Amino acid sequence: LSRAMARDDARTAHYGLLTAGATGAIFLFTALPAFAFGEPVLAWVFGQDFAPVGALLGPCFLMAGAMSMPQGSLHGLILRERRWAGPLASAVGLLAMLAVILPAGMAAGALGIIAAAGFGFALRAILFIFAAERAMRP
């Protein structure tokens, strides 16, 4: 990636978007079985007391996907020496999560907290990808 960007290779223009899409697809296809089978599998393997945890597996996989999606964008931004975008996007995502985590937790418990964290990470990912798309144009 660094050599291609040093040459202003046009193929790097959408690197962050492509890696985000691939990462999102992988986590989505991982989350679907977790939504469908997480609760019964955890109850079977660890006992009935763990069944509620199985219901949280799908949302946790989606949150992990939102956390991982902007990695390609981060690499591109660093190579373009746009280091400010990372902390800024992370701060905005954190503030958004903090704004909704208490009401979401009160309304939906652990699922609401996971959703609030996923919202913050998704906003962070969108900002990273947007910044990388602008910065990586040859």
Note down, in words, how this protein is organized.
Helix 6 (85-108) packs antiparallel against helix 7. It is elongated and about 55 Å long. It has 138 residues and is mainly alpha-helical. It has helices at residues 2-6, 15-46, 51-54, 57-68, 71-79, 85-108, 110-135.
Q: Layout of helices and strands, plus pairs?
A:
Elements: H1 2-6, H2 15-46, H3 51-54, H4 57-68, H5 71-79, H6 85-108, H7 110-135
Helix pairs in contact: 2-4, 2-5, 2-7, 4-7, 5-7, 6-7
Concise structural overview:
The longest helix is centred in the N-terminal third of the chain and has 32 residues, at 15-46. With 138 residues, the protein is mainly alpha-helical.
- Spans of at least 5 consecutive residues whose pLDDT stays below 50 are none
State the separation between the terminal residues, measured CA to CA: 13 Å
Mean pLDDT level: 90
Instruction: Report the principal-axis shape.
Output: elongated
What helical percentage do the residues reach? over 70%
